[in-house]
Fold:
Amino acid sequence: MQNTNYRDNPDILSRQSLNKNASEDISEKIVATILFACALVSVLTTFGIVVIIFQETFSFFQEVSFAQFFLDTKWTPLFADRHFGVWPLINGTLLTTAIAMAVAIPLGLSSAIYLSEYAQPQVAAILRPAVELLAGIPTVVYGYFALLFLTPLLRNLMPLEIFNALSAGLMMGIMITPTVGSISLDAIKAVPRSLREGAYALGITKLETIFKVVLPAALSGIIASIILGISRAVGETMTVLIAAGQQPRLTINFMESVETMTAYMAQISGGDSPRGSLNFKTLYAVGAVLFILTLALNIVSHWVANRFKEKYE
Amino acid sequence: MIIATTINACSSSEEKKSQVSIDGAAVGFPISLAVAEEYGKVKPEAKVSVASSGTGGGFSKFCNGDIDIAGASRTIRDEEIKKCKSKNIQFVELPIALDGIAVIANRQNNFVKCLTIKELGKIWGGESDGKILRWNQVNPKFPNENLKLYAPSSDTGTFDYMTQAVTGKAKNGRTDYTATQNQNLLVQGVAGDATALGYVGISYYIQNQEKLNLVAVESPTGKCEKPVPVDNVIKNIYTPLSRPLFIYVSKKSLDTKPAVKEFVDFYLENSWKWVDSVGYVALPDEAYVKVIRKFASGETGTKFKKAKPGEPITNFI
Structure:
């Protein structure tokens, strides 16, 4: 290191006292490089997945036209009478997701409101980890729980098929509740106390304060949590594979069995279809649709989070 | 540093020579697993890895030269043969066991005792899609009740074989049935649905006999036959709904790795002992003799591709 006049240049003084000697300087660089490489791995993996999905999808569309894929209403690529209409699979995904969100949004939001606004700190200290524990249960367990417990229970009430969108969706809703709950809880907690106190000072009740002041202020975080919940539901595989069945159907009847995009992909990748055949390429075409759908959700979530962000101070 | 790597590479290639790897169909996988375990007892130094990533996944690795043996619940397809050829991989096709397809109904069902192949074709064929929805449409003698169908999903060998056997064309199945790859779930479905009909591999029926009714199938001789006792499957009395399961052995591995030949010899000579216990049906005795002879001769290529459902397997070895 060169000799410098510290008094003339205090900036160099501080930098040099940080990098005491050359060897430390090198080790810093090595650490930075390793960390950069780690970050690079995930970027490259994503890149690799995207390249492969779209490469195979491209070759899929050389054999099957866009019209066959997007205008047909039947999905039977593995039958003698082949149809490649992707809508039944998209329908299955949207149906189970809608049911899941109908459970997860009210449950997640209510528990977030309770934990932040009503619960005693001691109660919250126990409840919050308990709710988040749900997120740690493997999804295959949820799937079998839906199939072997929830479905028989619901069958006492209505004529459900053994595989059905309803119990898969309900189960998925319970599974996603912690995702929606804990992110919106953070958003609600981030609303400054002064806003609530201002509302109380105006004589507004607690309930009104929550709905008219706190929730609107936390809206961006809440919407982001919901969209994250939706993309989890869309991407969920095991639960729907086990509990919703494998029958692609264009239906909104939640009592019937449906097949989601993810369940179809899981089915093909473990099955007997020859690799490289058109049957197998359907996997990538469906994967591409799924990829675009979740990407769109992520973009919307980013946009919403920025658009509705309320800034304080 | 360089020396160390070469020594490593050397010993690892030496190690590879004594390794045997199998991958393939989930149906039949338990047989290979049982054989590999028993082989490990006899030859503790042997390294046999068994995996099940589906017949398609198995052949994909097999024709790439990554594994020595592919387990298959169907015969090799043309595109797979082509792929193998492009990598210069020849194969020896060996049937190792039979799987019977059991037609099952709910315990409460008291009218369906026996079905003809024609009736099964009407129930499961692609032409019935959305049309044959009630039992009396299948046969006027049956009551006017809902016909609910449960069967393995369309990417399984069982589905291919069943459609081939009852409609004469593989994959020519209707699409409006409850499908899953997990046959235990089919058993659950049929057991819980009074007017249901389904079909599963015989082991799934045997494990759940008290929950299900087994439906007999009319054989070409006009008699109603059931796949239980399994002797009916072995002797090809229960026909045409039984199919052979295979292993495909790479000729290249056989020529370069003595461990593979040793293992397959052991497999062919002993697997019959454990076939029942893992839920499949042994081959007839004369078939084992022929399979062992075929393996010794090292004859490559597929003969079973031409076999029609129900034809005795000994004709194709």
Notes: Chain A has two domains: 4-63, 87-307. Residues 4-63 of chain A form one domain. The radius of gyration of chain A is 26 Å. The mean pLDDT of chain A is 88.
